[in-house]
Amino acid sequence: MTDLRLALRVLLRKPGFTAVAVLTLALGIGVNTAIFSLVEAVLLRPLPFRQADRLVSIDLKASQQGQTFDFPWDFPHYSDFVRVQGSYQSVAAWKPGSVNLTNTDRPERLDGEQVSASYFPMLGVSAARGRVFTADEDKPGDGRALAVIGYGLWQRRFGGDTEVLGRQVWINQRPLTVVGIMPRGFKGLSGSAEVWTPVTWQADPKRLENPGDYWLWIAGRLRDGVSLAQGRQEASAVLPRLTSPKHWFPSNMKFFVMVAGLQESRTDPRIRRSVLVLYAAVMFVLLIACGNLANLLLSRAVDRRRDTAVRLALGARRFDVIRQFLAECLVIAALGGAAGLLIANWMVTALVALRPEIAGAWGSLKSLDADSVRIDALVVSANVAIALLAALISGLLPAWQASRARVVEAIRGSAPRGLRLLNARTALIAGELALACVLLAGAGLMLRTFSNLLHTDLGFDAGNTLTFRVDLPEKQYSGPAVLQFANALRQRLATLPGVESAAAANAFPVSGEMGSGVIGIGDEDPVLGVPIHSVSPEFFHAAQVPLQRGRSFGASDTANEPHVIVLSSTAEKRLFPGADPVGKQVRLFASWKTVNASVIGVVGDVHYSSPETPPDTDVYVSSLQYPEASGFIVRTRGDASALVPAVRQAVASLDKDLPIFDVKTMDERVAVATSRARFSAALLGVFAAVALILAAVGLYGAVSYAVAARTRDIGVRMALGAERAAVLRMVLADGARVAFLGLASGIPAALAATRALSSLLYGINPRDPVTFVAVPMVLFGVTMLATYIPARRAARVDPIAALRYE
């Protein structure tokens, strides 16, 4: 405590030094704390379920021609698996989706899940009020019209009224009895659900009987004493004993089961990789900040050489000197850690604003939103640990050098040695420049990746285009009613002021969502699984997809006419290499029926997955023959977002109980599709800029101190006839040497480190020559700028003033 009190007094006497030291360290600690909150939310925080480490995902997959496809399960396969397995305490089926809350003055679109009765017990969650579903309510053909609602929905729409239990709510135009209310914060495996219905509650009972209708996801809880490897082995052994897949699958498509821990399977691997890269980057920033602090402390140690020597002469032990310097570092680290928490809090807000979108069936439970990325107890503990680590890293070298002071020379006031090249401060600055070089190279590669994504030809025109979805309840809309509604809505949208064209589609470009089917050529067995896009005849014009050959769909391509399809350019090359496909016959399995269809045209490739993913073998069918299009695309002459109120009114005029949802302009969808690259590029760019500034400030401080300490030496040189230009060149040469030392170690380190970015890059090599030429130039330029100011000051030294004390 005596050392700490003394350290505090010493630091208060030098408020300028203390402020710079604390701010430098606060930047390093703050960005580390913020990114650690990201790591904790995505990788470390356990799932909010009982014994979450025993939960696993059980995924059905298929491989064909070197490609792997994710398949949901069908209900018969799921039932067979539950019956024959023995390694799992419970297995549950669920399906994420969204539903319409209707028969109210304000219809609302809700995220929901259809679940088996084993779902809630498997997760170890009970209803806060009422009950969950029972096994008796989980039998095919006996699915009850029941619902369990979330705490947030209960508060928002029912005012927290407990009388809601036993009452009916209308979901998709059907009445369901509310039997339970889930605890606050529970949102299911999708991470966003507010209403749960039995998985057997289906408008079409055939879906529970069809061993080829893949729509369910499965999770399980391992029995006590059963390892993940045992559970995986049994699942693989069980699959061949299940009912075989429906006959229309290609013979070369092989099915298998993948069992993984739920924690691991719920984290997007690309997000995990990005987060780890960012954490490595901020560790570099922290090291640079620690290097700057160590440089400041080394300079302070030189200023205090005489004081330290007097203490040693009076009997102080070297350990006492080291302890005193470390105490000062500890005080600076404590203040820097506290200030770092404020910076981290601001950065977390920025992280959430920049967060990448996470798509897929598993939703966003492990996402980067304001609820999950936060400063909690674990993050604060990490902040304290980082601050202590920073104090240790920053203080050891200055404390060790101070304890080795030459007592006699220091008391006499002799000039300190080693103020030029190859001293401790020079090594620290060179190290900072090397770390900054690595960060700049990584940031440069990610920025070029983001630029490449933005300039990728996506195959459509995203400008002035509004997209939205309408979900038609099966009870009210089936068969011809679906097509009738879609046609009526398209006509009303097309007549709105400012609208050029309106079309329907089952999937939007760059959304990652699409239908699927199997296609075969002629009388051969189906050989290839393909994405199926059900679109209205106006789609290609509305999305500005170019027609390359043949014709597109017309109003005459109805269900009563021969089936027709349009191929993408990639589908043409894969299915009919070297031949004109127009007029050729194919066998197509889609919408649970097999038909013979004619190829009538070829259109340009469209990116339906992320922009960095190559276009797929896309097959287009007419929504007049396959009425599955629930999405609508509206091309306007002006701002597309301004059309939203008119669109809502157009839908309400056809059915007041149908809310529109997933409303985005196409530009917003492209922004979502490129959000992962934007996230990594923006943060790496910020960290690289902070690192460069810190390194430049550190170099400026070190050179300024060296110039000040060598004032007498410079004065002697100039008194003996040295030119001011020679003095300027001398100091700049010292800075250049430090820059070359930093680059000599930084460039090889950057070449090695950027290999870790390979999977995050698009259209660029990790050893991109442009980046690795630009980075050294920028770093050398900033280094020389930081050196020039003190060099200019040195060149203006007055020899008389410098030697006056003699």
Describe the protein in words.
The chain folds into four domains: 1-47 and 272-417, no CATH class; 52-265, no CATH class; 432-457 and 669-806; 472-657, no CATH class. It is 47% helix and 18% strand. It has 23 helices and 22 strands. Strands 3-4-9-6-8-7 form a six-stranded mixed beta barrel. It has a six-stranded mixed barrel with strand order 14-15-20-17-19-18. Strand 18 and strand 19 (593-603) form a beta hairpin. Helix 2 packs across helix 11 (377-403) and helix 21 runs antiparallel to helix 22. The two termini are 43 Å apart. The model is unreliable at 359-366 and 413-422 (pLDDT under 50).
What does this entry show, briefly?
This protein has 806 residues and is α+β, with helices and mostly antiparallel strands.
